[in-house]
Specification:
mainly alpha, two-stranded antiparallel sheet
């Protein structure tokens, strides 16, 4: 059963947790994305065009979406592992808060952080390229679904990990490769056929490609196909996360 008081309280706590250290959780990722843009655009802008789009313009949506995804994951995963390591997770588990409320609060807070950072990256990089905003609704749909997927993965990682280095391994060996090899910095059509095929098995590719479609109206695959893949991943991970929370796996002794 969903009692909204517990949900709102936990959501407020999770949003306040990252906002109070905004210099680290918001400003630092924006600076990192800006550095990526400055370096890659300086090297490749005069030499590379993708689907008729200047490289800097092509790169901006990828960096925005990458920031959304990485920060959504970081928010939910770091909150859970920190609560487990310090023992404060008991203050979340003891009150009469349902597993649905736990899931909704952690994932929605992760989406909020991802969108805040993504918006900051977009505003910081607008002057560097030309963006058309052809389909704003597609932009929002993929940003929210992508943030929800990575927020759910963050909850799963936080539940599974018992210490910070296990969480770091999850991020370094799964999240980072999936995001960096998803077409953020390139079109998959520039890859050899074998690696194009491999890229189609990466769900983050569809998040990036669908998100980029919202800006330019062009994409490597149909945005409807991307939406289907992303939506299916969201439902699958939601079901898995809810099952873990309901069972109390690694949360309740």
């Amino acid at each position: 059963m969903l009692t909204m008081g517990g949900f709102y309280t936990l959501l407020y706590k999770e949003v306040l947790r990252f906002w109070r250290v905004g210099f680290q959780t918001v400003a630092a990722p924006i600076l990192t994305a800006l550095l990526y843009l400055l370096i890659f655009s300086h090297v490749l802008e005069a030499h590379v065009k993708v689907n008729g789009i200047g490289y800097t313009s092509f790169l901006i949506p990828g960096l925005v979406m990458m920031s959304v995804l990485q920060n959504a994951f970081a928010n939910s995963s770091s909150s859970l592992i920190q609560s487990k390591v310090t023992g404060s997770i008991i203050f979340v588990l003891l009150p009469p808060i349902s597993y649905l409320e736990l899931y909704a609060a952690y994932v929605l807070a992760a989406v909020v952080r991802g969108l805040v950072v993504g918006t900051g990256v977009l505003l910081a990089t607008l002057g560097f390229g030309s963006l058309d905003f052809v389909a704003p609704l597609w932009i929002m749909i993929f940003a929210i679904l992508g943030g929800g997927i990575l927020g759910s993965l963050g909850v799963i990682a936080g539940i599974w990990a018992d210490k910070f280095d296990q969480l770091a391994a999850f991020q370094n060996f799964l999240i980072m490769p999936l995001t960096f090899l998803s077409g953020v910095f390139y079109s998959i059509h520039s890859l050899p056929p074998f690696w194009q095929h491999i890229s189609h098995w990466n769900p983050v590719f569809y998040m990036i490609d669908g998100f980029r479609y919202g800006f330019f109206g062009v994409s490597d695959v149909s945005p409807w196909h991307s939406l289907g893949v992303v939506g299916a991943c969201f439902l699958l991970l939601t079901g898995l996360t809810l099952q873990l929370l309901r069972s109390g796996y690694k949360l309740r002794a």
